[in-house]
Every structure is written in structure tokens, then in C-alpha cells.
TrEMBL record:
Keyword Signal: yes
Name of the featured protein: AB hydrolase-1 domain-containing protein
Extent of the signal sequence: 1-22
PANTHER family cross-referenced by the UniProt entry: HYDROLASE, PUTATIVE (AFU_ORTHOLOGUE AFUA_2G14860)-RELATED (PTHR43798:SF33), MONOACYLGLYCEROL LIPASE (PTHR43798)
Organism encoding this protein: Pontibacter amylolyticus
């Protein structure tokens, strides 16, 4: 075992231990089944983690243990993973999004939310963000799945693309086959169910382009990696604020191999969201003050100088602006 691998395992172990010590997991009923979840930390934003296919909340241990120092965090295991009960209904993408939405309501989580999704989890947070744009103030995509992946791989090499799908399907445990089939249907259609447009919020996309000596999948060959990167480039292009981070030092599980990249991405998004909130509040105050000054102008034209002076004074006092800002406005 390499030194790097040993350190990563230690990080993962201690991250989960710190997270477990912060607060115990609990089971939350979301209708006809219950999900395992954990809440910890404190702060203005709640960072919600969505795991990739077939993995539970523990994969985020070494990321969440750091993020909860300045933020609230919520992690959970999707239906059928970890200690979460299976969904008695078909485990489709729509069902997963409904579970997440219900869990957030049942756990009484308050926005603003920062959503973090890995791989298939990206589909889920995209749908939730589109359905609840006012609640979501930032997005972090960790090597996200893309609905056009199979379509583009087939364009590059149809035979290898089909072989990839067959090989990946052969690895899927029976309890995850239903969700795997739902994902495959998305890849075949090359489109996600319509949930609406994503909100324009600070966004970071993390992409792995790691080279492999003997790639087992076409997706991991140079041509497949090029397809993957181009899809992520295209996906990120819809956002006006954020960053697209490329790493060649870790594989698909960036959050486990390079957790610092995910931690930094979350920090970046939180900082940008905070600045955007301050900007919007400033604009709101300026608009209110503009209305006050317009009313004062009306009073001045009516030769009601004392009324004009009073509402301007009250408007400035209530604006919350400091002396320097008020002088600048003047």
C-alpha cells in the first residue's frame, strides 16, 4: 500500500469519526420508508451532500468534517444504501428527488442551501435546484454524471461504448439494479426529466482527467476522457459565476482522493453566495432610498420642505448605510 493511499484511508477514517462524534445519525420517515441522515455544524448556509450511485453518506466523511466547522451540513443515505430502507416504489430519479425534498422538509432544514453532488448525485441536485431555485444559493458538482455521456461515447466508438455499459452493468449488485436501470434509461434517452432551468448561482464543477496505465473502460481511455471533459465544459458554460476545476491526480472519487479540492470548492461557493447576498441587499437599500428621495422631491416641488427633510432623514437613518456611503450618495 502506498503512503498516499494510507494517508487517504486515515483521512477517511478520522473524517467519519469526527462526523459521527458531532451528532448521531437518525432515521427520518419520508412516506413509506425511512432514510438515514446526519446533521451537524452551524452557520448561515446548510451544505447538503448527495452521494454517487450505490454509496452512502459516509463517503463524504473527510469533506464534511472540515466543512461543518463553518457551516451546517446534512448528509444522508439514499433509499437502499447504508441503513436507509429500500423504496417500495420504483427507485427512479424522480423518486430520489422526491425523497430528498421530503427529507429536507421533515428534518426542518432552512435555506439557503449549498448542494454538493457526486456522479449520479449530480442529476438529483440538478433536479432539486431547478424545482426549488429560491432555496439554492450554490452548487458543487464532483465529477458529475452527464445525460449525454453514452450518446457521445457511441459517436466516438459505438462498440467500445456498448462494451462499457455491459461491463459496468455486470458489476452492479442486485439491490442496486433497479436504480442502475433507471440511470441507463437516462443515458439511452440522453436527456433528463424536465425539472426546469437551473438557478444562476455560484457553481464549481470538478472534473477528473486522470490517465490510467491499463484502462478497463473506454471512458478511461484518452478519447473517453476527452468526451468526459468536453461534456463538463459544455455543462459548466451555462453558469455565469464559478469555476471549472480539472484534476489529473484523482479518479472518479475526487472527494475521497483529493478531498481538499471539494472543501475548497464549497468554500468558494459559500463566499461567492455571501457576496451576492450582500450585493442584492445593497441594491434593495438603494432602491428604497431612491423611492424616498423621489417622494422628497415631490414635497419640495409642493414647497413642503420640512416634510421632505423629515422623510430623507428617516430614509437615511433606516437604510443602514454608514456616513461614508451616505456622503457618496450625496
Amino acid at each position: 500500500m502506498t503512503i498516499k493511499r494510507t494517508l487517504l484511508l486515515l483521512l477517511f477514517f478520522f473524517g467519519n469519526m469526527l462526523l459521527a462524534n458531532a451528532q448521531q445519525t437518525k432515521m427520518v420517515n419520508v412516506g413509506d420508508h425511512s432514510l438515514e441522515m446526519i446533521q451537524a455544524g452551524d452557520g448561515e448556509y446548510t451544505v447538503i451532500f448527495e452521494s454517487g450511485f450505490g454509496t452512502d453518506y459516509k463517503v463524504w466523511g473527510n469533506v464534511a468534517a472540515e466543512v461543518l466547522n463553518l457551516n451546517q451540513v446534512m448528509l444522508y443515505s439514499r433509499a437502499g444504501t447504508g441503513k436507509s430502507e429500500p423504496n417500495p416504489k420504483p427507485q427512479t430519479l424522480e423518486a430520489a428527488v422526491k425523497d430528498l425534498s421530503t427529507l429536507i422538509d421533515q428534518a426542518n432544514l432552512k435555506p439557503p442551501f449549498i448542494l454538493v453532488g457526486h456522479s449520479y448525485g449530480a442529476f438529483i441536485i440538478r433536479a432539486y435546484a431547478a424545482q426549488h431555485p429560491d432555496k439554492v444559493k450554490g452548487l458543487v458538482f464532483v465529477d458529475p454524471a452527464h445525460e449525454k455521456m453514452m450518446q457521445e461515447l457511441k459517436k466516438a466508438d459505438p462498440a467500445k461504448a456498448v462494451k462499457d455499459r455491459e461491463l459496468q452493468n455486470s458489476f452492479v449488485p442486485d439491490k442496486f439494479k433497479q436504480e442502475s436501470e433507471a440511470i441507463n434509461r437516462i443515458f439511452e434517452k440522453a436527456v433528463l426529466p424536465d425539472s426546469g432551468k437551473l438557478p444562476q448561482v455560484p457553481t464549481v464543477v470538478l472534473t477528473s482527467v486522470q490517465k490510467r496505465a491499463n484502462p478497463e473502460l473506454f471512458l478511461h481511455e484518452p478519447k473517453g476522457v476527452e468526451v468526459w471533459r468536453n461534456l463538463h465544459n459544455d455543462f459548466f458554460s451555462q453558469f455565469t459565476s464559478g469555476a471549472h476545476v480539472i484534476t489529473a491526480n484523482s479518479g472518479h472519487n475526487i472527494h475521497r482522493e483529493e478531498p481538499e479540492l471539494v472543501i475548497n470548492a464549497i468554500r468558494q461557493v459559500v463566499q461567492a453566495a455571501t457576496k451576492e447576498k450582500a450585493r442584492q441587499e445593497h441594491e434593495g437599500k438603494m432602491l428604497a432610498l431612491d423611492n424616498t428621495l423621489a417622494q422628497a422631491d415631490t414635497y419640495l416641488k409642493q414647497r413642503k420642505e420640512s416634510k421632505a427633510e423629515a422623510i430623507v432623514f428617516d430614509g437615511l437613518k433606516g437604510s443602514g448605510f454608514g456616513e461614508r456611503t451616505i456622503n457618496t450618495i450625496a
